C-alpha cells in the first residue's frame, strides 16, 4: 500500500513538472514585437497601412505578438509576409489595453511636460510659503516697547522704514508668484486635457496581431504586416496663383490628410489614392420591379408601423469632419503620379509624420502650369464691380476632384474658391477677384419707362442703361450679364424690345454681351422690355 502511494506521488510530480515545462515553453515562445509604419496609402475615407518588424524566431513553433496596430483595422484585409525559412500557420487579432509603461513617445513627452509644470508650481508654492512666514514674523515683531528699549528716533525711523519697505516688497513678490502660478495652472490644465484625450484615444484604438509560425532553425527574420484601417481620410486643396493674364497660371495640388486610428505614423511614405474602398467593386444586380393596385391601409396599422419604425443606426448618420489646413514645407517634385483604369494615385517619396488625433497635415502632391483664358465678368444688376475669371483649358486631363482653393493674383491673396470638376459643364471657371480698374454703372432710363392701360390689360415698359469704362493700361475682354423677367403665368407676357445686340437665352431670361475695351474706352449698352398683364392683377417681382 505504501509503495503504491509512493508511485502515485511520483506520477503526480512528473505530471506537474510536465505542465510547468509546457507552460514555461509557451510563455517563452510568445514574444511581443514592436512594429513601425513604413507606408500608408490613404483613400478618401480609409487607409491601407504597411508595418514592418524584425524578430528572432526560435526553432519550432512560436506565437509572435506584433504591437502598435490600430484596433480599427478590418480583420478581413489583414496580411502578413515573412522572409526566411518560416511557415506562417495562422494570423489573428486581439485588443491591447495600454499599460502605463507602454505609453507611446508622444504621450511620454506630454507626461514629462506635465511633471515639469507641476514641479514649477511646487517651487512657486514653496516661495509663497516662505514669504508668508517672513510676513508673519514681521507682524509678530513690529511692536517695540519703549520701557525696554533705548532706541533713538533715527533708529526707530529706520526700523519703521524697513518694516514698511519689506512688507511692500513681500506683497509685490506674492502678487508676482500668484500671476505666474495662474499661467502655469492654465498650462497644466491644457496639458492634462491633451494627455487625457490622447491616452483615451490610444487605449480605445490599440490592438495586437498574433502570428503563429514554425521555423526549421533559429534565425532573425523580417515581417511585413498590411491591413486597411478606418478613421483616416484625405481631401484635396488647391492653391491657384496668377502673376498676370498673359502667362499660364500655377495650380498647386495639396492633400489634406487626417487620422484618428489610434496609431502614430512616424516618417512614413504616403500614397494618396482617389479610390473609395467602401463603395465596393461588385456590380449591382437588377431584380424584378413589381407593381400592383394600391391597397387601403387601416389607420391602426399605420400607427403600428410608426411605432415599429427602426431607430437610426450609427451607420446611417452623416459623419462631418472639419479640415484644418496647414502649410507644408516639402516639394511637390517628390511625388510620382500613377493613373490606372479605376483611379489615380500620388506616391510621395519624402517621409512625413502624422500622429493619431493631431491636426490635419497638408502635403504638396503636384504643382503644374495650366493654360487659362481670362475674362472680366460684369453683372451690373447685382454688383458695380468687374470680376476677373480664368477658364482652365483641358481641365479634364488634370485628374482633379472637388475641393476648396486659395486664389492668389499678382502675389496677393484674393479669397477662396471651389473647384468642382463634376459641375464644370461649359468649362472650369475660377474667380480671381475684383478688378477695380474697370468701372461699372447701371441706371434706369426714364424715357424707356412707361405704364399704360389698354382695354382690360396693363402694359409696362422698363429700360436700363449699362456703362462700363476701362481705366486700366491694357485691353480687357468683358462678358456682361443682365436679365429680363420670365413669366410663370400664361396671362403675363414679357416682350423684349431692345437688347443692343445682346444674346438672350429665353428659358433663363439671361442676356449676355461679349465686348473688348481698349485703355480709357467706355461702353454703353441699353436694353428694354415690356410686361403685359390683366389690369385687375398685381405683379410681384418687378
| Biggest sheet layout | 7 strands, mixed
Strand order of the largest sheet: 5-8-3-2-11-13-12
The computed structural class is alpha+beta
Q: What is the CA-CA span between the terminal residues?
A: 119 Å
In DSSP terms (H or I, runs of 4 or more residues), the helix count works out at 4
Overall, the morphology is: flat
Assembly state: single chain
Low-confidence blocks of residues: 15-29, 298-330
Summarize model confidence as the mean pLDDT.
Answer: 79
Helix content range: 10-25%
Q: Into which percentage range does the β-strand content fall?
A: 35-45%
What does this protein structure show overall?
- The chain has 542 residues and is of the alpha+beta class.
- 23% of the residues lie in helices and 42% in strands.
- A seven-stranded mixed sheet has the order 5-8-3-2-11-13-12, with no helix packed on it. It has a six-stranded mixed sheet with strand order 19-16-15-23-26-25, with no helix packed on it. Strands 14-10-9-17-18 form a five-stranded mixed sheet, with no helix packed on it.
- A hairpin with a 2-residue loop joins strand 21 (450-454) and strand 22.
- It is flat, with a radius of gyration of 39 Å.
- The termini are far apart.
Write the layout of secondary structure elements.
Layout: H1 2-28, E1 30-33, E2 36-42, E3 47-57, E4 60-70, E5 79-82, E6 86-95, H2 105-141, H3 153-205, E7 206-215, E8 219-229, E9 232-242, E10 249-259, E11 265-273, H4 299-307, E12 335-339, E13 344-354, E14 361-370, E15 372-378, E16 386-392, E17 403-409, E18 412-419, E19 428-435, E20 438-444, E21 450-454, E22 457-470, E23 476-483, E24 493-498, E25 503-505, E26 510-517, E27 522-534
Parallel strand pairs: 1-4, 2-11, 9-17, 15-23
Antiparallel strand pairs: 2-3, 3-8, 4-7, 5-8, 6-7, 9-10, 10-14, 11-13, 12-13, 15-16, 16-19, 17-18, 20-22, 21-22, 22-27, 23-26, 24-27, 25-26
Helix pairs in contact: 2-3
Amino acid at each position: 500500500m505504501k509503495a503504491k502511494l509512493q508511485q502515485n506521488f511520483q506520477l503526480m510530480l512528473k505530471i506537474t513538472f510536465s505542465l510547468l515545462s509546457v507552460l514555461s515553453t509557451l510563455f517563452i515562445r510568445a514574444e511581443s514585437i514592436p512594429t513601425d509604419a513604413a507606408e500608408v496609402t490613404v483613400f478618401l475615407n480609409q487607409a491601407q497601412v504597411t508595418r514592418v518588424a524584425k524578430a528572432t524566431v526560435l526553432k519550432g513553433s512560436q506565437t509572435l505578438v506584433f504591437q502598435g496596430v490600430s484596433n480599427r483595422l478590418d480583420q478581413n484585409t489583414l496580411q502578413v509576409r515573412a522572409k526566411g525559412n518560416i511557415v506562417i500557420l495562422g494570423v489573428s487579432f486581439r485588443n491591447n489595453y495600454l499599460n502605463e509603461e507602454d505609453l507611446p513617445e508622444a504621450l511620454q513627452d506630454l507626461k514629462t511636460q506635465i511633471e515639469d509644470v507641476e514641479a514649477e508650481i511646487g517651487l512657486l508654492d514653496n516661495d509663497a510659503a516662505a514669504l508668508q512666514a517672513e510676513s508673519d514674523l514681521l507682524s509678530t515683531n513690529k511692536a517695540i516697547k519703549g520701557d525696554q528699549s533705548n532706541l533713538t528716533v533715527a533708529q526707530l525711523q529706520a526700523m519703521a522704514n524697513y518694516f514698511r519697505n519689506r512688507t511692500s516688497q513681500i506683497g509685490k513678490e506674492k502678487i508676482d508668484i500668484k500671476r505666474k502660478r495662474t499661467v502655469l495652472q492654465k498650462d497644466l490644465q491644457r496639458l492634462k486635457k491633451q494627455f487625457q484625450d490622447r491616452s483615451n484615444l490610444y487605449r480605445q484604438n490599440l490592438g495586437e496581431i498574433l502570428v503563429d509560425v514554425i521555423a526549421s532553425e533559429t534565425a532573425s527574420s523580417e515581417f511585413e504586416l498590411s491591413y486597411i484601417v478606418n478613421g483616416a481620410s484625405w481631401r484635396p486643396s488647391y492653391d491657384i496663383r496668377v502673376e498676370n493674364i498673359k502667362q499660364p497660371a500655377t495650380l498647386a495640388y495639396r492633400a489634406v490628410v487626417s487620422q484618428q486610428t489610434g496609431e502614430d505614423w512616424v516618417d512614413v511614405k504616403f500614397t494618396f489614392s482617389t479610390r473609395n474602398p467602401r463603395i465596393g467593386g461588385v456590380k449591382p444586380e437588377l431584380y424584378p420591379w413589381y407593381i400592383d393596385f394600391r391597397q387601403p391601409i387601416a389607420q391602426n396599422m399605420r400607427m403600428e408601423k410608426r411605432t415599429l419604425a427602426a431607430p437610426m443606426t450609427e451607420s446611417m448618420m452623416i459623419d462631418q469632419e472639419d479640415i484644418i489646413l496647414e502649410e507644408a514645407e516639402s516639394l511637390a517634385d517628390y511625388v510620382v503620379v500613377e493613373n490606372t483604369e479605376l483611379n489615380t494615385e500620388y506616391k510621395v517619396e519624402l517621409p512625413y509624420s502624422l500622429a493619431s488625433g493631431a491636426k490635419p497635415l497638408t502635403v504638396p502632391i503636384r504643382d503644374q502650369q495650366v493654360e487659362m483664358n481670362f475674362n472680366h465678368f460684369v453683372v451690373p444688376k447685382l454688383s458695380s464691380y468687374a470680376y476677373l475669371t480664368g477658364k482652365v483649358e483641358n481641365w479634364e486631363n488634370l485628374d482633379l476632384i472637388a475641393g476648396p482653393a486659395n486664389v492668389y493674383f499678382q502675389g496677393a491673396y484674393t479669397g477662396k474658391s471651389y473647384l468642382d470638376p463634376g459641375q464644370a459643364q461649359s468649362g472650369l471657371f475660377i474667380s480671381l477677384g475684383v478688378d477695380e480698374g474697370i468701372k461699372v454703372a447701371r441706371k434706369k432710363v426714364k424715357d424707356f419707362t412707361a405704364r399704360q392701360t389698354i382695354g382690360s390689360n396693363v402694359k409696362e415698359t422698363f429700360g436700363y442703361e449699362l456703362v462700363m469704362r476701362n481705366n486700366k493700361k491694357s485691353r480687357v475682354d468683358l462678358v456682361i450679364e443682365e436679365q429680363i423677367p420670365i413669366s410663370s403665368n400664361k396671362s403675363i407676357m414679357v416682350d423684349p424690345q431692345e437688347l443692343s445686340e445682346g444674346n438672350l437665352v429665353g428659358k433663363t431670361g439671361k442676356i449676355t454681351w461679349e465686348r473688348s475695351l481698349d485703355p480709357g474706352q467706355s461702353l454703353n449698352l441699353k436694353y428694354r422690355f415690356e410686361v403685359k398683364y390683366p389690369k385687375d392683377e398685381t405683379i410681384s417681382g418687378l
